[in-house]
């Protein structure tokens, strides 16, 4: 299994979708068709925070992701967080997002990771949480996101 890269982005735009697209561009994953999966880290995967994605393949291909995102119309604050816990076997991602501050989102992610570990008889040795948070100005839409991108992109057709 290849590396799962965790990236983040924040951006504004004149519509909710344009701010989302711009936040994806800030993370450099805007040229892929994102396919969301539930939050299990495969046993042989390495997870690393890279901030901005490298080239993951040709535009238009499918990219498997776990995504935390929130969009708001300003004024206000928007935050998204993604955490992961791993060990010698499989691991977990947990995401939270909303029109709230970074610390609240971090607490929700940590609580989710704790609950997920309680459901499984796996060994967990490491944990990390990344949060993207920004102020949204009046008259703009703002998106914050943190995304785990599984490996490289793949042809969609």
UniProtKB/TrEMBL annotation:
Catalytic activity: L-arginine + H(+) = agmatine + CO2
Names of the cofactor(s): pyruvate
Keyword Lyase among record annotations: yes
Record GO terms (molecular function): arginine decarboxylase activity
Biological process, per Gene Ontology: L-arginine catabolic process
Membrane-spanning parts: none
Keywords: Decarboxylase, Lyase, Pyruvate
EC number: 4.1.1.19
Pfam families: PvlArgDC
UniProt cross-references to InterPro entries, sorted A to Z: Pyr-dep_his/arg-deCO2ase (IPR016104), Pyr-dep_his/arg-deCO2ase_sand (IPR016105), Pyruvoyl-dep_arg_deCO2ase (IPR002724)
Name of the top EC class for this enzyme: lyase
Family: Belongs to the PdaD family.
Record's protein name: arginine decarboxylase
Taxonomic placement: Archaea, Methanobacteriati, Methanobacteriota, Stenosarchaea group, Halobacteria
């Amino acid at each position: 299994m290849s590396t799962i890269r965790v990236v983040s982005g924040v951006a504004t735009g004149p519509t909710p979708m344009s701010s989302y697209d711009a936040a994806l561009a800030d993370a450099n994953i805007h040229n892929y068709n994102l396919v969301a999966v539930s939050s299990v880290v495969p046993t042989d995967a390495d997870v690393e925070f890279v901030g901005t994605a490298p080239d993951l393949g040709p535009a238009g291909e499918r990219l498997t992701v776990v995504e935390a995102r929130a969009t708001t119309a300003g004024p206000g604050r928007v935050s998204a967080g993604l955490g992961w816990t791993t060990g010698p076997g499989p691991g977990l991602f947990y995401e939270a997002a909303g029109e709230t501050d970074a610390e609240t989102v971090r607490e929700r992610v940590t609580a989710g990771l704790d609950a997920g570990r309680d459901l499984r008889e796996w060994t967990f040795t490491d944990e990390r949480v990344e949060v993207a948070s920004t102020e949204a100005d009046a008259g703009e839409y703002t998106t914050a996101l943190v995304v785990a991108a599984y490996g490289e992109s793949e042809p969609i057709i």
